[in-house]
Amino acid sequence: MKRFSAICVTKNEDLAFAPSKMTQMKSTATAHITCDLAATRKWVCECESCREVRSLTGIDKVLAVRPLVREIEQIEEQLRDLPEGAERQGLRDRYLTRYDILAHAMAK
Ligand SMILES: [Zn+2]
Fold first, then answer.
1. If you measure from the C-alpha of residue 78 to the centroid of ligand 1, how many angstroms do you get, rounded to a whole number?
2. From ligand 1's centre to the CA of 48, what distance in Å?
3. Burial of 3 by CB count in 10 Å (0-12 exposed, 13-18 middle, 19+ buried)?
4. pLDDT class of 38 with cuts at 50, 70, 90
5. Which residue has better confidence, 8 or 35?
6. Does the reported pTM lie above 0.70?
């Protein structure tokens, strides 16, 4: 995450949103993308965060992360069926790692 100095923030104050809000929007949109692609194979959410991130990120990048989203979806399914234990813990770690990669890919 980039840190913005007070000077930068003042310079950029004509932007529609502050950097922290953008970060928040991206994480909201990333969660919505994951849900949407899992449910419908398309990113259909029309909330403010998704519309904003979609216009900034571009649909190409969203399509590029689809294999990652599919993997997250598959791990979620496996997690549902797995009892608590070492195997489940390992899978959950993998899930969180994939989620981080997805969030970073979207934030680029
Ligand atoms: Zn949304």
1. 25
2. 7
3. exposed
4. confident
5. 35
6. no
